[in-house]
Amino acid sequence: MTLEADVIVAGGGSAGLAAALAAARAGARTLLIERQTKLGGMGTNALVHTFCGLFHPDVSQPWAWVNAGIPAEIGQAMMDRTGQTAPDLMGRVYVLRQHPSLYAQIADELCLAEPRLSVLSGTEWIDLQKDEKGWHLGIITRGERRTLHTQTLVDTTGDATGARLLRPSWCQQVEGSRLYRPAYIAAFHGVLGTHDDGWRLQTGAVIVRAIREGLLPAAAIGAGFRDSPFAGETFVTVDLEAGQGEWDPFDPTKRARMEQEGREVVLALWKYLRQQHPDFRPCPPPMLPVKAGIRETARYIGDYIITGDDLASSRRFEDEVALAGWPMEKRENARGPKFRYFDEPLPPGIPARCLFRQDAPGLFFAGRCLSADHEALASLRVMGTCMATGEAAGKMAVDFVSRC
């Protein structure tokens, strides 16, 4: 059985959601395929609970959307549903607290509102072929193998899946010791008290003392707490070394062990804090994510590879299709981020050439697997920027279809 569409978007995270909406709204018959059962990617399945990259980087001025269109639309919808009237100012950046359940709901509603958009969830992409008729994707959905055909393909899987299936020379991946570390996030409910910076420092001191006494695993050292938009709910994020130089996000055994470690650390934190910290005593067991948050795997090599220096200098491009608003947040170990901010608080451009290759007509890529170097990815991988590059790729895909 072969299904056909004008545009197929592979990957239903922030970039894929925006790409599919943009293509369908431009009139293309669009099919969005996603391996999980919820759209939203890391923002729903990994419980990543902030939208970063939505705002202009100049925090000396009132907050403003850095990219109009779908990023601002989704950001405003989240603000409306959570009762927020402005993002939070955290040091030198604006961030918007988001709720994973509401993000899944927003994604569903936006897709259902587009009659030209169909969604296949629980779908694994396993094969890719190209001929004069277009792109042929092999998928498995609910145990059944199917073939999809399209003139135009947008890869937003985050893993450069299309390149890895068809031509691995089209993608790049840094060594395991430099890959940005995965994060394991859980939601704690019923946490008492006011969770300001002093509270976070005091809670961190409790955790450090327990680690030194052998009462908590060493991996708990980087645990960070941030409140949900709703009272009594707090998210805890633990960055994991994941074997450091041995980390390979494509190795299923290593991936499983990393997920196991994440659960072990979070549940150990819950058990200890419930006994030793009065604000955690009412807490039931935490809500665990569907999967850990993966910050980096493989990226395409496009017609242009945007660099960290491009971003730091706020470079603009004649063919730019989106703007970056988030600094380079490098997490090459689990001891916290190292930020490289733009030299001036001005948003750099992201050129269209980062989203395609001339020798692969009809193939576009966006989100975490766009064409960027390792340092630039530390900025461009965040959800707000992924929405912007995804929307751009969706529009470019429709333009390609119209020329065929």
TrEMBL record:
A Pfam family that the UniProt record links to this protein: FAD_oxidored
Keyword Oxidoreductase: yes
Keywords: 4Fe-4S, Iron, Iron-sulfur, Metal-binding, Oxidoreductase
Annotated SUPFAM superfamilies: FAD/NAD(P)-binding domain
Keyword Iron attributed: yes
UniProt GO molecular function: 4 iron, 4 sulfur cluster binding; metal ion binding; oxidoreductase activity
Record InterPro entries: FAD/NAD-bd_sf, HdrA-like
PANTHER family: COB--COM HETERODISULFIDE REDUCTASE IRON-SULFUR SUBUNIT A, FERREDOXIN:COB-COM HETERODISULFIDE REDUCTASE SUBUNIT A
Name used for this protein in its record: FAD dependent oxidoreductase
Lineage: Bacteria, Pseudomonadati, Verrucomicrobiota, Verrucomicrobiia, Verrucomicrobiales
